[in-house]
Amino acid sequence: MGNEKTLETNIIRMRPEAEVALKTNNLHVHYGDFEAIKGVSMEFEKNKITSLIGPSGCGKSTYLRSLNRMNDAVPGAKVTGEIIYQGIDVNVPEVDVFEVRKNIGMVFQRPNPFSKSIYENIAFALRRHGMKDKSALDEIVETSLKQAALWDQVKDQLNKSALALSGGQQQRLCIARAIALKPDILLLDEPASALDPISTSQVEETLLELKEKYTIIIVTHNMQQASRISDYTAFFYLGNVIEYDETRKIFTRPKIQQTEDYVSGHFG
Ligand SMILES: Nc1ncnc2c1ncn2[C@@H]1O[C@H](COP(=O)(O)OP(=O)(O)OP(=O)(O)O)[C@@H](O)[C@H]1O
To answer: Which residue range or ranges hold the ABC transporter domain (predicted)?
Structure first.
């Protein structure tokens, strides 16, 4: 990634030849009078994992939630600027948010399966999107669970309550639920922070496999995790992107002192 940051526009560009799955132009988010995101312009490369890192309260989750219009539901939140997906600005009222979220799926910090069976956790959303055919539903349930690396563990107990699964399995079920709708892009907000180290590493392995098919953007506080799984890393601070580059560069030779201080644990 060239990481050309122009002073005029604050656009941080991907490699010119890279295929861009999603980008924001001059994105601002306000909560009432407070400006949480201050004009962020970034491009996300297709079939790569991009990590958003930075200290607590710097706006990572706010930015992530804006990308599939989840901030629409947050009282007092106002998102301005462009979010360009497949050539159109999806941050305009005329665009159907459900369509946006079908294409740009989200997985949250705490596993939040519905209080239903493993099967229904996935089939429910598909039915809501109009799919009624049982064999088609069965097939998508199986493929999604396979892609989320959960099928082998649950294939004989699809009618068991999802709440009986372990935390790591529940999170992989939530990933399966998100990919069942066949999104292009997966947004994950600290998806492993509530998990033990073994479940964390299983979720990380799952994400590495999923990037073959999806573009992944993940908020993480865990810098080892960012360096293990992501191709690109963006360092957020006080509502701005301070530096955005290939992950190995961010962690070994960042260009900006604040990034260096943060990744080396000397931030303060
Ligand atoms: N619903 C809200 N209403 C008002 N202010 C909010 C709301 N959500 C977040 N904020 C504020 O916006 C700023 C950015 O918060 P955000 O949660 O996006 O940061 P973050 O970098 O993801 O933090 P963390 O790493 O702790 O999750 C913070 O000052 C926070 O207090």
So the answer is: 22-263
- Write the ipTM: 0.97
65 lines ligand 1 (CB under 6 A): no
* Ligand 1 centroid – CA 50 distance (Å): 20
Distance CA 209, CA 76 (A): 37
Structure tokens at 222: 């865990």
Q: What is the dihedral of CA 211, 209, 186, 12, to 10 degrees?
A: -30
Q: Which atom of ligand 1 is least distant from the CA of 236? A: 21
Pocket test for ligand 1, best of 28, 38, 52, 60 (most atoms within 8 A of CB): 60
Query: Which pair of tokens denotes residue 120?
Result: 């229904």
**Is the C-beta atom of 31 inside 6 A of ligand 1?**
yes
Helix (H, G, I), strand (E, B) or coil at 217: strand
Sequence-ordered alpha helix ranges (H) in 93-219 = 97-103, 118-128, 134-147, 151-154, 167-180, 197-210
Q: Which residue has the tokens 């509530």?
A: 194
